[in-house]
Amino acid sequence: MQFSVSKNLLLSHLHKVSKVAPIRSTMPILNSVLFVLNNNDLTLRASDIEITLSTTFQVNGKKDGNIAIPSRIIYDIVNEVEEGDMDLTSSDDGVIIITAGKGKYEIMGRPGEEFPEMPSLTKKNNIEIDSKVLSRMIQKTVIAVSRDELKPSLSGVLFQVRKDELRTVATDGHRLVCLIRKDFKSSEYEREIIIPVKFLNLISTYLTDEGKVNIVIGENHVMMETDSTMILSRIIDEHFPDYESVIPNDNDKLLTADVKYLTAVLRRVSIFSNKTTHQISISLNRELSKINTIDQESRSSANETLDIIYEGDDLNIGFNAEYLREIVKNVDTKTVSLKLKTSISASLVLPESQVENEELIMLLMPIRLSE
């Protein structure tokens, strides 16, 4: 294989695939990027088995072929060489020679045939959605995805494709975010799938404020394709919990606060909270409400009077300050509403008003206060 290409063009596409190529893997070949040259089209492909990213661009091709090149070293050397064109040549025995400026660099590659094949999608169905809307749905829900590797069903976002609406739902067992788009149409196709958060974060970088995108859903994989890049992911084959049954509809106590103000208070008070539990206590009263925390380990504490509106019986409730702050920051309106019931029941967090054709529902479980 032999071709020449500008340093910046190659670097930009290496940057794309580097987000997928694992640094360490039980399959050493996955630590490489597959280069495939066909005439003047160069395709780079990286995979961690779960997710595969392929990107194609034009170079000055001289000899077709394929080679798997260690991802870290090829990225580092292309990043460091001087501006301008560079040549890459690979021999039949796997030796790769890179020539750039006055430098000549040699590394060993592996046969491209050793690299995993691109997964094929079976029983494909397309859903079309506004790029801006999909970006928002991902942004709003990924904050609640679980980071616990022992809970694979919670390590992605549930996409519920219905004829007249699209839902994205994420939960880590402590908080839950559900976003419903009511202006979505899916003809006859309906399905529920759990999509890994890594795939969603990857495609978010390709979503713009204009146009539509096609998401292709297969039996075991999901894919998004742009003009030059294809991102494909395995679907999480797990059962998502029945989230609708835990969303309360009878919370009779209402706390209303300015989003920026409440976020700032939570940030200040959490400085003094326990670094493991981040526990805070909110004492609610129609006349005077307070927020406080105490950390016995560091002997630190904080106490503030709250400038909020509260309607309901007196209530003393505990939260993880970090979780509550993230949920409150997820609200776009000036004020946020917390609908509460008891000190141990789920709290609803809602925006002051809903965006047109959208319903955002967030839930946060309280934590039992230390005596």
Secondary structure elements and pairings:
Layout lengths: L1 E5 H12 L13 E7 L2 E7 L3 E8 L1 E4 L1 E6 H10 L4 E6 L4 E6 L2 E6 L1 E2 L13 E6 H11 L14 E6 L4 E6 L3 E7 L9 E6 H8 L7 E6 L3 E5 L3 E6 L18 E6 H12 L8 E6 L4 E7 L4 E7 L2 E3 L3 E6 H9 L5 E6 L6 E5 L6 E7 L7
Antiparallel strand pairs: 1-5, 1-7, 2-3, 2-6, 3-4, 4-18, 6-10, 7-8, 8-9, 11-16, 12-13, 12-15, 13-14, 14-27, 16-17, 17-18, 19-23, 19-25, 20-21, 20-24, 21-22, 25-26, 26-27
Helix pairs in contact: 1-2, 5-6
The total count of helices amounts to 6
Number of domains: 3
The number of E-state strands comes to 27
Mean pLDDT: 94
Fold-level CATH name of the largest domain:
DNA Polymerase III, Chain A, domain 2
- Residue stretches low in confidence (pLDDT < 50, at least 5 long) are none
* Secondary-structure class: alpha+beta
CATH class of the largest domain: Alpha Beta
Brief sketch in words of this structure:
This protein has helices spanning 7-18, 71-80, 131-141, 197-204, 259-270, 321-329, and strands at residues 2-6, 32-38, 41-47, 51-58, 60-63, 65-70, 85-90, 95-100, 103-108, 110-111, 125-130, 156-161, 166-171, 175-181, 191-196, 212-217, 221-225, 229-234, 253-258, 279-284, 289-295, 300-306, 309-311, 315-320, 335-340, 347-351, 358-364.
Structure description:
The chain has 3 domains: 2-114, Roll (DNA Polymerase III, Chain A, domain 2), CATH 3.10.150; 125-244, DNA Polymerase III, Chain A, domain 2 (Roll), CATH 3.10.150; 247-364, DNA Polymerase III, Chain A, domain 2 (Roll), CATH 3.10.150. The chain has helices at residues 7-18, 71-80, 131-141, 197-204, 259-270, 321-329, and strands at 2-6, 32-38, 41-47, 51-58, 60-63, 65-70, 85-90, 95-100, 103-108, 110-111, 125-130, 156-161, 166-171, 175-181, 191-196, 212-217, 221-225, 229-234, 253-258, 279-284, 289-295, 300-306, 309-311, 315-320, 335-340, 347-351, 358-364. It is elongated, with a radius of gyration of 25 Å. 34% of the residues are buried. It contains 6 helices and 27 strands. The chain is α+β, with helices and mostly antiparallel strands and 371 residues long. α1 (7-18) packs antiparallel against α2 (71-80). Helix content is 17%, strand content 43%. Strands 10-6-2-3-4-18-17-16-11 form a 9-stranded antiparallel beta sheet. The protein has a 9-stranded antiparallel beta sheet with strand order 15-12-13-14-27-26-25-19-23. A hairpin with a 3-residue loop joins β3 (41-47) and β4.
